[in-house]
């Protein structure tokens, strides 16, 4: 793993490189470099680029994919906290999150066109990373109940309660169905619960 880490960091700093270049930089055998490159390529972190030279076959260079950005540390939570703290200090957090919900819902509505009822909800939850939520959607007398055992906004929701209202707002704006959050993990529950009401019930 240390060699793979060094390899990835080198490619991040220097761009696409050949096996020969990587062998010299990492001070390991060509076979070892190829082994690590193959493993990283299978993982979707690397791709091959062929560069034509003056003579002979095109040189194969290995470069990082867009997906590899996830391998490098980011400071998104700190930035989000700073933005929300400033919005709260200026009395703008409710308006800001209302706009965020509308923007998210607008993008989702186009993808949900033609779907109705539970099929529409299932598609919506898939688009909202339903799998990552560890969610369970169940039919009720008045509509549906969604229990999400992994809150995607948990840390931020602990600091800003308004963030916990974002999912039901997005659900309501994207589907046209009334939605609410009776309680969630910030209340000490094992799951965040969202109620979605069927029209006319």
Broad CATH class of the largest domain = Alpha Beta
Report the strand count: 6
Note the quaternary state here: single chain
What is the ordering of alpha helices and beta strands? HHHEEHHHHEEHHEE
The figure for the number of domains is: 2
GO molecular function, one term: DNA-binding transcription factor activity
Protein name: Transcriptional regulator
Domain HTH deoR-type: 4-45
Pfam family, one: HTH_DeoR
How does this structure look, described?
GO terms for molecular function: DNA-binding transcription factor activity. Keywords: Transcription, Transcription regulation. Residues 4-45 form the HTH deoR-type domain. Pfam families: HTH_DeoR (PF08220). InterPro entries: ArsR-like_HTH (IPR011991), DeoR_HTH (IPR001034), WH-like_DNA-bd_sf (IPR036388), WH_DNA-bd_sf (IPR036390). The structure is a single chain. With 201 residues, the protein is an alpha+beta fold. It folds into 2 domains: 2-71, Arc Repressor Mutant, subunit A; 76-197, Muramoyl-pentapeptide Carboxypeptidase, domain 2, CATH 3.30.1380. Helices cover 49% and strands 17% of the residues. The chain is built from 9 helices and 6 strands; from the N terminus they run H-H-H-E-E-H-H-H-H-E-E-H-H-E-E. The chain has helices spanning 2-14, 19-26, 30-42, 76-89, 93-112, 117-127, 130-133, 154-159, 166-175, and strands spanning 46-51, 59-64, 135-139, 143-148, 179-183, 192-197. The strands form 2 sheets. Strands 3-4-6-5 form a 4-stranded antiparallel β-sheet. Strands 1-2 form a two-stranded antiparallel sheet. Helix 2 (19-26) crosses helix 3 and helix 5 packs across helix 9 (166-175). The longest helix is centred in the middle third of the chain and has 20 residues, at 93-112. The relative contact order is 0.09.
